[in-house]
Each structure stands twice: as C-alpha cells, then as structure tokens.
Amino acid sequence: SPLQPGVPLPDPPAKNDYEDNAWAMAEGKRLYVQFNCNGCHSNGGGGMGPALMDSRWIYGSDPEQIFSTIMEGRPNGMPSFKGKIPEHQAWQIAAYVRSMSGLVSFSAAPGRNDSIDQSPPENSREKAKDPMRSYVPPASEMPL
C-alpha cells in the first residue's frame, strides 16, 4: 500500500535475538518437549494443535506473535504460559518454533536432532513458502 501523509508506518516485527543463537534454539527445543508442546503439535507436524512446519500460521509467524501465543494462550486449546515460565524461555521456544519452518538463519538453527525422532534437523529444512502473518480461520475451521 502506498505511503499516506499523516498515517503512521506499522511497527517492524520484533527481533528475537535468540534466533541468532543455536544454543538458545536448542534450549527452546528442549523446553518444547519438556512443556509437552509436542503433545498437541507433534514434532511440528500438527495433530490436536496446528502444524508448525508449514506456511499456514493461524496467529502469525513473526517472533512477537509466536511469543504472544505462548504467553497469552489462544482459544480452543492453547494454554497460557504467562506466570508459569520466564519470558526468556518463551522467546527461546518461539525461536525454535520458527526454526521448524526454516524462518531462522540456517547457520543458527540447531544442526542435529538429539532425540530418537527420525525427522531431519531444523537447519536442513526448507523455508516455509510465504508464511501468512495473521490468518484467523472461521470458527468452523478452528481446532478444537
């Protein structure tokens, strides 16, 4: 959209410094498993909760949108972790979640998988094609 006089520019997406740190993303991966995120999101492929490895992001793929989802929760199943985990851990999980779709630097993403899971490590996955920033499906398509 063209710039219009008197209309403020939108804020740029927040930068998550943990996305440049392989150790922090590995911690995010450990926390993802420890907090049982994989119970709903599987290993990023979805299940009861939405997939995290594709280009369809219900509440947005920007770091602050993922952080907000973790801390505030979402209707129909995503619990709030606010007051239960420190914010830095939520940012580490957000960095790891973005790495599942190839949305972080190849050189910073965890380079190996430390579990018995046979999926490829995050830094060898292709970037998700055109991730949607704020798609909210109609109620009939919302996960239960």
Layout of strands and helices, then pairs:
Layout: H1 22-34, H2 38-41, H3 63-72, H4 87-100
Structure description:
This protein is mainly alpha-helical. Helix content is 28%, strand content 0%. It contains 4 helices and no strands. The model has no long low-confidence stretch (mean pLDDT 81).
Query: What would the principal axes of the Cα set say about the shape?
Result: globular
Quaternary structure type: single chain
Structural class: mainly alpha
Number of helices: 4
Question: Summarize this, please?
Answer:
By secondary structure, this protein is mainly alpha-helical.
Features:
28% helix, 4 helices, 144 residues, globular, mainly alpha
